[in-house]
Write a structure and sequence with these properties.
alpha+beta; Glucose Permease (Domain IIA); 7-stranded antiparallel sheet; two-stranded antiparallel ribbon; 3 helices; binds zinc ion
């Protein structure tokens, strides 16, 4: 007697979406960046921060909604770090596909709607752009959100009791050469374009 074993291989693919709502979330061309918001531009030295490469993109709010303009995770994943302490509020999400692991970072966000370790999907907002009251308080230079895609795991940080859920940090301010940048980060728009091209 011959037994046949059928191995069912399920291929888990990851769909990647835009982190903002547009009429068609696959319209990658509709993402607008701030004037100095491109990936890999050199950022000038400022007090306490040496000159460094911009490790992500600064995405403009897509509409004129200064009350509740939502931000989405680009793919399904798990929240591994959260800080919600003003203009540097940040979420880091870990994504696992059949081919690779990658991490996305959302910063200068507000109204965080997800918990640490929560499983998220691109269907529900994770946060929103700052509203008018917050921009008046923190400054209108934060009228965008900073978005990164990491190639390697973020850096575990010693937990600060003031930010107990901030468990990881990105490599945002430590990229002083193109090779640092290439080691840690994907160009986010290229990465998203590639996902949409098949
Ligand atoms: Zn930025």
């Amino acid at each position: 007697m011959v037994s046949h074993f059928f191995i069912v291989v399920s291929i888990i693919s990851v769909e990647v979406f835009l982190p903002i709502r547009t009429d068609n979330r696959k319209a990658i061309g509709s993402v607008q960046l701030t004037e100095i918001g491109e990936f890999a531009v050199m950022r000038k030295e400022r007090p306490k921060v040496p000159a460094h490469f911009h490790t992500g993109i600064d995405i403009k709010r897509p509409g004129k909604n200064y009350v509740d303009e939502p931000i989405f995770a680009v793919a399904e994943g798990t929240v591994i770090s959260k800080r919600d302490d003003g203009p540097y509020a940040q979420l880091i999400i870990e994504h696992q596909t059949e081919k690779q692991k990658f991490w996305t970072v959302y910063e200068h966000i507000a109204g965080l709607r997800v918990s640490l370790h929560e499983r998220v999907t691109p269907a529900k907002p994770i946060a929103r752009f700052m509203n008018e009251v917050e921009l008046n308080k923190y400054g209108w230079q934060f009228d965008h959100f900073h978005f990164e895609i990491l190639k390697v795991a973020p850096i575990p940080v010693r937990v600060d009791p003031a930010k107990p859920q901030r468990l990881f940090n990105s490599y945002s301010l430590v990229c002083y050469s193109k090779s640092d940048l290439d080691k840690y980060f994907y160009d986010p728009l290229n990465f998203l374009r590639k996902q949409f091209s098949h």
